[in-house]
Amino acid sequence: MANKATNSVKKIKAYIFLKDVFLVAITAYGGPAMHLALYQKKLVEEKKYLTTDELLELYSLAQMLPGPSSTQTLTSIGYKFGGPSLAFLTLLVWVLPAFLLLTLSAIFIGIFEEQALVYLRFVTPVAVAFIAVAGFKMIQKSISSRQGYFLASMAFIVAALLRHPLDTIVNMNTPWIFPIVLLLGGLVSYFGFKGDLPKNDTIKVEIPWKFLLSFLFIFITAGVLGEISSNRFILLFENCYRFGSLVFGGGNVLIPMMLEQYVSHAAYMTSEQFINGVGLVQAIPGPVFTISSYTGAVALQDFGVLFQCLGSLSSTVGIFLPGALLIFFVYPIWKQIKTHPIVVKALPGVIAASCGLVLAAAYLMFLPVGFNWIKKGSFYFTNLDRSNLVNIGPVIIILVTSFLLMKTNIKSPWYIVIAILAGILL
Q: For position 98, what pLDDT does the model report?
């Protein structure tokens, strides 16, 4: 169970915290699991804003909600320190770099698309190392019982091995697997709990209904306007707000939904243009959900640069607003109920399962990096290129980076800077 906030947390200044959020944002390559690794290293280990358990609590909470989990985790950290105002500024600082870069990328895509992907080719193995080391560190700090290790192992097996390569036997490749694993971890922990409980289980919860009502009002209004309007700004906002309200499982689940909507249904762009955006969002720091910035700009490419910028803004607000409103609604409730005996019993299991999910993410990211596959994106054993099985270079980078992360105090951004420089020079 997480301890209460430390004195250093109580004394933080908003501008210092936002500066640290910005430093994370400009080095946050690799998707949600990589982002969590950066939060662990920068906000927990270096700045000591919160503990590992507190971070995992917030991450677990975000995993149970639709929307961008890493963004919601960081937004809830901002809420923890300064309420909705700091949470909003945290979200803005976190999203802004990727929003600007992807909007510019959509406008000038023909100029530097291929170069960017080449220059950032060494970032992926570094990201794998970050995630793997973060998972092991979280297990060391947050799990102390056999039950905890069991739950972390089961979470890893279900979220990693049953998806690749054992999905030929049991198909578990669904975005719902993450909240399901966390809930099951909580149930096992609840019924197997051994320890002291708070004496008073009567907690009065003040529910911030205004945020939930705002979420529902915008959802319904945007849906109605989207049906009756042909205005592309409204349609882009409605599409993205709907995606942000319904997507569980992060950006990898969002991408196929966007592909269907923007390429097959609305025909706002070609499949090649969309796939270019998918590649760029993997090479640019920040949340994967900012692919909406790119698609919003490309969808208005025939209307001039100003309209492209406005389309990007409309889509970006649409994709991140529902997740923020849900955090503003849920976090104050969570803060009040987390000391309830039911939560005290269940939370160790949720945290243990979260550790397993982080290691699962490292494994799933390692598969395309560490091995060669005959058909790209298919990770069955039978699809392995046995004539050239292992990617020696990326594996060495992962091992060396992991060793340095475990044994040295080199700051996180330097690994990314060195990876980018190597991509440019080699």
A: 93
Those residues with Cβ within 8 angstroms of residue 210's Cβ, 6 or more apart along the chain or in another chain? none
Residue carrying structure tokens 């490749």: 173
> Among 7, 114, 106, 92, which residue's Cα sits nearest to residue 50?
7
Helix (H/G/I), strand (E/B), else coil: 201? coil
> What pLDDT was estimated at residue 5?
43
Closest by alpha carbon to 172, among 184, 160, 187?
A: 160
Nearest to 185 by CA among 214, 231, 152, 209: 152
List of the chain residues with pLDDT < 50:
1-10
Tell me, what's the pLDDT at 167? 58
Span 170-220, pLDDT tens digits: 555 555 677 788 888 888 888 887 766 666 555 566 788 999 999 999 999
CA dist 31 and 174 (Å) reads 18
Q: What is the pLDDT of residue 251?
A: 67
Paired with 390 in beta bridges are 371
- On whether the CB atoms of residues 158 and 184 are closer than 8 A, the answer is no
Q: Measured between alpha carbons, how far is 191 from 55 in angstroms, rounded to an integer? A: 24
Please report the DSSP string for 241-292 in residue order: HHHHHH--S-HHHHHHHHHIIIIIIS--S-HHHHHHHHHHHHHSSS-GGGHH
Residue keyed to tokens 């662990």: 40
Kind plus residue range of the DSSP H or E element containing 13: none
Nearest alpha-carbon partner for 293 in 53, 51, 95, 46? 95
The pLDDT of residue 348 is 85
